[in-house]
């Protein structure tokens, strides 16, 4: 089954403790992206990757890192999480480079930073 | 990057046709318009995409006027299960991967 998977689905952590949220897709997609979703703010892009070893900042990259060493994986790294990074995170992938952007989204990771 | 504006919320009743309009005044020549649907606690799901005129699939229709400064997602005969948030996204080859979603429209379908 074609899908985007994220792990963990739920995470409660403390301020400053480094964490990684994994994202994997099995559709051989070139494009991958991370979003965060907060009440009243919609979906905001954190980072995206057009291809392996190519990543770039989205709208809200501060406090996050990503890497794209393999086509299928695109982990999101929070080196020193803070409470304002408490959010619902979505990973997405797409086989259609610009301009089509039919993205497939993962199930989401709900992160709480205390 | 094209900015989009949608109504924050809409109400409808089962069986009615629902039209959600998205305004995108600064759409670029090579931009496409894409609509996504999101249920609570789930990732968004692609519904439909178009460039101009009308596009129809098994789920919805997308109407785009000649000037392309707006678009309308049409959901025929909605049911309670269509209650969701609908996002309009405008993007093209000039985006180089950076995408900006609007705040979305929360559609509430009532029995």
Core attributes:
heterodimer; A: 114 residues; mainly beta; 7-stranded mixed sheet; 4-stranded antiparallel sheet; 0% helix; 50% strand; globular; B: 111 residues; 5-stranded mixed sheet; 49% strand
Summarize the structure.
The complex is a heterodimer of chains A (114) and B (111). Chain A is mainly β and 114 residues long. Chain A has strands spanning 4-7, 10-13, 19-25, 31-38, 42-51, 54-57, 65-66, 76-78, 87-94, 104-105, 109-113.
The arrangement of helices and strands of chain B along the chain is: EEEEEEEEE
Instruction: Enumerate how many helices of chain B there are, as a single number.
Output: 0
Arithmetic mean pLDDT of chain B: 92
Helix fraction of chain B, binned, reads under 10%
Low-confidence stretches of chain B: none
Strand content of chain B: over 45%
Q: From N to C, what is the helix and strand string of chain A? A: EEEEEEEEEEE
Please give a structural write-up.
The complex is a heterodimer of chains A (114) and B (111). Chain A is an all-beta fold and 114 residues long. Chain A has strands at 4-7, 10-13, 19-25, 31-38, 42-51, 54-57, 65-66, 76-78, 87-94, 104-105, 109-113. In chain A, the strands form two sheets. In chain A, strands 2, 4, 5, 6, 9, 10 and 11 form a seven-stranded mixed sheet that branches. The radius of gyration of chain A is 13 Å and the shape is globular. The model of chain A has no long low-confidence stretch (mean pLDDT 93). Chain B is mostly beta strands. Chain B is 0% helix and 49% strand. Chain B has strands at residues 9-13, 18-23, 31-38, 45-50, 53-56, 61-64, 70-75, 84-92, 105-110. In chain B, the strands form two sheets. Chain B has a five-stranded mixed sheet with strand order 1-9-8-3-4, with no helix packed on it. Chain B has a four-stranded antiparallel sheet with strand order 2-7-6-5, with no helix packed on it. The radius of gyration of chain B is 13 Å and the shape is globular. The termini of chain B are far apart. The mean pLDDT of chain B is 92.
């Amino acid at each position: 089954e074609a899908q985007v998977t994220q792990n963990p689905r739920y995470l409660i952590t403390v301020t400053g403790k480094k964490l990684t949220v994994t994202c994997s897709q099995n559709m051989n997609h070139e494009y991958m992206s991370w979003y965060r979703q907060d009440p009243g703010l919609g979906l905001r892009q954190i980072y995206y990757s057009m291809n392996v070893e190519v990543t770039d900042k989205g709208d809200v990259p501060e406090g996050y890192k990503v890497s794209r060493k393999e086509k299928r994986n695109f982990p999101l790294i929070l080196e020193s999480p803070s409470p304002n990074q408490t959010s619902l995170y979505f990973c997405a992938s797409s086989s259609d480079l610009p301009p089509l952007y039919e993205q497939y989204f993962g199930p989401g990771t709900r992160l709480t930073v205390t | 990057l094209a900015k989009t504006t949608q109504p924050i919320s809409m109400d409808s009743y089962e069986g009615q046709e629902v039209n959600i309009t998205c305004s995108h005044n600064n759409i670029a020549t090579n931009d496409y318009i894409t609509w996504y649907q999101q249920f609570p606690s789930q990732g968004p799901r692609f519904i439909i995409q178009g460039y101009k005129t009308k596009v129809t699939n098994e789920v919805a229709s997308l109407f785009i006027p000649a000037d392309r400064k707006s678009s309308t997602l049409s959901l025929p005969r909605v049911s309670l299960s269509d209650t969701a948030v609908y996002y309009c996204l405008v993007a093209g080859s000039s985006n180089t991967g950076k995408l900006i979603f609007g705040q979305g429209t929360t559609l509430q379908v009532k029995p």
